[in-house]
Amino acid sequence: MTITVKTFARMDDAANALMQEREARFMAGGTLLMRAVNEVDPSIRTIVRATDPNFRRIGLSSGRVELGAGVTMAAILAERELAYLHPAARAVGGPAVREAATVGGNLFAPSPYGDFATMLLALDATVTMAGGFGQRELPLEELLSRRERGALLVASIAFRRPAVDAIRFVKVTRVHPKGASVLSIAAQLPLSGGRVSHARIAYGAMAPSPVRAKAVERALEGRPLDATGIAPALAVAHEGTSPVDDPIASAWWRREILPVHLRRLLLGEYSARHS
Amino acid sequence: MKTPIQFRLNGEDVAAFVEGGANLLDTLREIVGDLTVKGGCWQGTCGTCTVIIDGVPRLSCITLAETCSGSSIETAAGLRRGSELHPLQIAFMERFAAQCGYCTPGMLMAAKALLDKNPNPTRQDVIEAISGNICRCTGYEPIINAVLDAARDHTRSRV
Q1: Which of A213, A230, B21, B72 is the most exposed, having the fewest neighbouring CB atoms within 10 Å of its CB?
Q2: Listed residues B60, B78, B96: the one ending a domain
Q3: Mean pLDDT over each residue of chain B, to the nearest integer
Q4: Contact by Cβ (8 Å): A151, A18
């Protein structure tokens, strides 16, 4: 079967090509798509690419961060201003994968992958979609909930620059130093007067796509990050989750260890090596 | 329909016609004839197909060949200078870092990508650099020690 590769200079043109052809797939870094191509997936007849410079642009203004969907994990790791994202970027594959793997591609990585998307969800990110309708913005949470539908092309991802010391991330794996997630947890924990204010917590590998832990967020509101303060949050740690059995871990095991790692993350017990 | 591509491979100009969707690994092995690049999983998982593209490590099995046009690619075939082995190759032999040898070309290129950027790596740097490369024989310790030896020898030889 012959595959046609179509390359476009503008994201909107790439998005149009994607919408016009049912058997077209967009290639960002290729780490997911090329697997399917190598396995001769008959549903792929066309690969669509974009060379638009905005696709790989990192925009840093005082209060906002905008990442082109084609920004690689290696590019994130090379940007000091994004140091709070480094633990999540480093959690993606080895160095060779990180040179190819993109921010946009991670949003579509099937569970148990997608650790970087979990971090972006905790940052309340929005995504800008490209398409024949022009560009439009929607919450990342909404994209993740319907990402299985085809013909979606993410142009960029944006979020408010967080307080750096409010960001925490942990990835739990069975293989070290690199392995697929048993689960991952990303948290944005702004403190006001020593108490949590507007927390954002996201889980990876605890559902078919990364999910917000909204019950935990509510339970943390106004509470200090100590053993007593986080107890109500731990009691509702499982709300909204639907983990699956896979070769990495059983759903039962994921449920068992989730509160353990959530507690450690909230209490700041992880060293830089873990997170 | 085949697409013409050109790139530099270990310092030499190479031109090839590739099928749409062809990966770089198959292109290097089957069209160009560089058999030092090994294929393990074709899924971007094992790291044995690691090459260096424009100075950074990449997995050739999940790299679309067409995207490499105009690039400079390094493989294990280009490590040796005439009869002189690369310090990494010498260290791998002396440290018994290869048993079955299948992962070795990928390990060498992952290690070279590290040393090209960081000539004095720590043990942790080496572990991180080869973290995407699977070896089922050695238990990794001889490989890590070999890369550290090569870094020391390479640094010493340039002083």
Answers
A1: B72
A2: B78
A3: 95
A4: yes
Residues 6 or more apart whose Cβ sits within 8 Å of residue A185 = A118, A168, A169, A170, A201, A202, A203, A204, A258, A261, A262, A265
* Sheet architecture: strand order including A46-50: A4-8, A46-50, A24-26
Number of domains in chain B: 2
Residue A34 touches partner B, C-beta closer than 8 Å: yes
Q: What is the pTM of this model?
A: 0.94
Element at A220 (helix H, strand E): helix A214-220
The answer to whether residues B45 and B99 belong to one domain is no
pLDDT at res. B156: 62
CA terminus-to-terminus distance, chain B: 52
Neighbours of A175 (CB within 10 A): 11
Identify which has the larger pLDDT, B23 or B157: B23
> pLDDT per residue over B87-107, tens digit each?
999 999 999 999 999 999 999
Q: Does B131 touch chain A (CB under 8 A)?
A: yes
Per-residue pLDDT, averaged over B52-74, amounts to 98
* Same domain? B16 vs B73: yes
Residues B64 and B120 reside in one and the same domain: no
Domains, chain A:
4-50 (3.30.43), 53-160 (3.30.465.10), 165-266 (3.30.390.50)
**Residue pLDDT, tens place only, B21-34:** 999 999 999 999 99
Q: Is residue A57 less than 8 Å (CB to CB) from chain B?
A: no
* Residue of B51, B61, B64, B115 to mutate when probing chain A, most A C-beta within 10 A: B64
ipTM entry: 0.94
Mutate to test the interface with A, among B131, B143, B144 (most CBs of A within 10 A): B131
Report the CATH number at residue B62. 3.10.20.30
Task: Check if A37 contacts B (Cβ < 8 Å).
Answer: yes
Q: B73 and B31 in one domain?
A: yes
B58–chain A Cβ distance below 8 A for any pair: yes
Contact B109, B50 (CB under 8 A): yes
